[in-house]
Each structure stands twice: as C-alpha cells, then as structure tokens.
Amino acid sequence: MMTACKCSCTPHHLGRTLCNPFLLLYISLLLLLTWLPWTQCRDVRPVKEIYLPDYTVYHNLTRVGIHIQELAQKFPGYLKLDTSYRSRKGRPQFVLRVSNFSGSYSIQHSTEVGLTPVKARILLAYGEHAREFFPVESMFHLLLNLTGGLTAPEGSHGRAYTSEVLSKIDLFIVGMVNPDGRHYVEQTKNYCWRGTSTGVDLNRNFDWQFGGPGSSGDPEDEEYRGPAAFSEPECLVLTDLVTKFQFDAFLSLHSGTRDIYLPFSDSQSKLEQRKPKNLADQMRLAKLLSDAMATTFQHGIGYDLNQYTADGTSFDYMAGVKKLPFSLAVEMWGERDSPSKRCFDLFNPPNKDLQTALDEVHPLYETLFTFLSYWKERQARSPFGVIEEPSMSFMYFCLAMTVLLLVFVCMHRHLPASLRAFPKRRVISINRLWMMWKD
Predict the structure, then answer these.
(1) pLDDT for position 380
(2) Which has the closest alpha carbon to 205: 178, 170, 241, 171?
(3) Integer distance in angstroms from the first to the last C-alpha of the chain?
(4) CA nearest neighbour of 82 among 71, 100, 72, 96
(5) What's CA 49's distance to the chain center, in Å?
(6) Neighbouring residues of 279: CB distance < 8 A, sequence distance ≥ 6
(7) How far apart are CA 277 and CA 323, in angstroms?
(8) Segments of the chain with pLDDT less than 50
(9) Residue-level pLDDT at 4
C-alpha cells in the first residue's frame, strides 16, 4: 500500500520525493517543452514567434524591389541598377553599383609617379539567408544616408561625407541574393526558413571545401549544402561579378549575433590552421570595425571564433579561390541563440527598435570605406603593387645578419693577415716609383 508523502525538508524525505516516478515524469515533460522550441530553430520548421515584422517598418520583398528602383531612377548619375541576375524562379537579385561615375578620386601627386586615379572596389552581399531581414534594412539605411547627402546643402556634413565616399569608393551591392527564400518566408510565415526555394543554404553551396562536416546533406537541416557546389543559380551573381571586376573587398552581411569573421571558417582550414595571406591587414580592419560600434563585436578567424565550422561559405570562397585582399562575414545584430529565442527575434530587432539598431550599426560602413580608401591609396603609391608587411622570420634574419656584420667589422683588424678579407698591402707612392724607375 502506498503512503502519502508528507512535505519535509529532511534529506530522507527529499530523496523519496525526487525518486517519485510521477514527479520525475512531470519534470522531464516540463524540460522537454521548454527545450523544444530552441531545438526547432536548428531545422527549417516554423515555431510560435515572440513578435513578427510590421511591413510598414520592415521592407517586404515587393517593397525591396520598388525602393531600390526608385533610388536608381532618382539618382542616375550615382546609382546604376542591374536586374539581369535572377533566382531559380526568376526573381531579380538587384545588383546596384554606387559611385560618382563622372569623376574619380585623384591621389595627390599621382602625375609625378605616373599613377592613374583609383577607387577601392567593394562588393556587399545581403539576403543570403531568407530569415535575416536586418541586413537588408541596413542596406537601405546606407543608401538613404549616401543619397541624402546628394541633396544636402553645400558645405554640410552630409554633403561632404557623400562626396568623399562616392569619389573614393566603387561600391557594388547585391540587394537580395536569395529572393526565392525570402518570398517563401513571407508566404508561409515560417521565419525559421534559411535556404532557397529548394531549401539549400547558399552559404554552404560555394566551391570551397564543399561537402565538409561543417555542412549537412540532410534537406531538413538548416545547413543543407545542396547536391553539388554551385547547384543553386543564386550563387552566379557573386561568382560572375568577381570574375568581371577586380574587387578589393567582399562582405557577406548576416544577423543573429555580433561577430566579424575573417577567413577561414571551414573544417579543413581549422585542421591545418590555415590563415589568409594578409591576416594583419584584415585583423586591423576587423578591430577598427568592432571599435566603431556602440556594442562590442567579437572579431577573429572564423574557425577560432565559432564553436562550429562552416564549409562552402561565400566569404571563404572569395578569399581562398578568388584571392580577394579582404573577405569578411559580418553578423550585424543579435544576442546569440538561447532557449528563450524563437526565430524572427533571434535575427531581427523588434519593430520599435529597428531604427535605433540601424543607427548603431551604420558606423561599420563609414569605417569600412575610410579604411579601404586609405589602403587602396597606399597600394597605388607602392611601385610594387600590393604592400605586404615583412614576416617576423624575415625580420629576425635581417637582425641576425646585421649583428654578424658588426661583429665581423669589429674583429676584422685583429685577424691574421691570411684570414682578412682585405689583407694589408705595401703602398708605394708615385714619387717612390719614379725614383725606382730612374735608378
């Protein structure tokens, strides 16, 4: 016969209470229900969201296209729109080129060294992941700041800033890399959806260590890589642009946390501890970007910063295959995953906080443009092209050779004549030679 368990704080009764099978079952179910929404964010199934986007605040896919086209039509001397690049289902990816097409930044004294005016050429990619609305909103924030300066009063800060950027930077923007995925999110209200119309994660579909363990072959997984590298036509816009134009920098913009990743992030690179050739410059840029933010951003090599590897990413491809001097993946907003997070709130701020979040992240662009325009000027001034800092081993070698040379010079005069590099010779004056000849 079972007896009722009385409430007691003694260890004996506490142990009996915890061993009650019905109580253990209740606790297990409670933990499972609490944990389940968090685990569902790992795949592509929808969850009950904490808040949803207000499309009078956020852009939906239709408004994205309309707004980009309006800006291009309003400022034809500075914005050129190309809608020829299309998704699997024929939706435009909106390639926008932003620059001062009537002129270029002239390096001081460039005619003296035989140089031509140059601009830093940058490629920014937005909307690779369908559920990440925030990066696309930051693109519009950037465009409105730049174009706003074109109509600002002469001598104003906005006018000066826009003039400086447009004359020194040749900016390419892919406004919506994955429009089919974004359309799917809006139609199904599944804000956990990350991939294309076929469920492929574009940021695992590039031909750099494709198929590694830092991706998935399961179509139900959010990191599904697809059947083959570049199986998704949406990748073409990025690979084609970097083939046609010589870019100095590529940035893949995301949300979900606040991190700045440098190459590489793939499994093989982590195993080999592979690093990009110009790590010092890239690390310097990442630190400046982090320091410019109101909120601290972590920065570093992808496989060091993340607890997991990522194979087949666009920014690794740009660094490893295309050899771009700068290639970064930037997570622009978020507080990382946790059991309390769903999907939309993990990647995008509440409607009422969107403008503040955009203002806070905007210094990233200002710092990026300033750094790369200065870096580009340094490269143009160098008669040997790209300036590379000497390695520490080379510096140690030079120091050792200098020390050896000093020791040799100091000890030389104490060496026997037979061992000297320049043994003493008898010096005969011209007068002496004349006297010898007369005799």
Answers:
(1) 84
(2) 178
(3) 143
(4) 96
(5) 28
(6) 262, 301
(7) 9
(8) 1-15, 17-18, 29-42, 104-115, 387-392, 433
(9) 40
What the block records as the tokens of 167 is: 């004359």
- Which amino acid makes up residue 362? H
- At 11 the pLDDT is 46
Predicted local confidence at residue 107, as pLDDT: 40
CA distance 253 to 233: 19
CA geometry: angle at 101 spanning 100 and 105, to 5°?
A: 55
343, two tokens: 């999907």
> What gap in Å lies between CA 276 and CA 32, rounded to an integer?
43
| Residue 187: C-alpha distances to residues 7, 181, 239, 296 (Å) | 53, 10, 29, 35
Amino acid at 37: P
Asked if 176 and 94 count as a contact pair (C-beta separation under 8 A), the reply is yes
Residues in a beta bridge with 120: 169
Q: What angle do CA 291, 379, 121 make, to 5 degrees?
A: 70
How far apart (Å, rounded) are the C-alpha atoms in residues 294 and 301?
Answer: 22
pLDDT value of position 106: 40
* Calpha distance 16→178 (Å, rounded): 57
Half-sphere exposure of 254 (CA within 13 A, CB side): 23
| Alpha-carbon span 266 to 253, nearest angstrom | 18
Report yes or no: 263 and 276 within 8 Å, Cβ to Cβ.
yes
Distance, in Å, from the CA atom of 225 to the CA atom of 202, rounded to the nearest integer, reads: 7
Q: Are 297 and 259 in contact (CB under 8 A)?
A: yes
Going by C-alpha positions, the residue among 101, 96, 94, 95 that lies closest to residue 78 is 101
User: Contact 264/302 with Cβ under 8 angstroms?
Assistant: yes
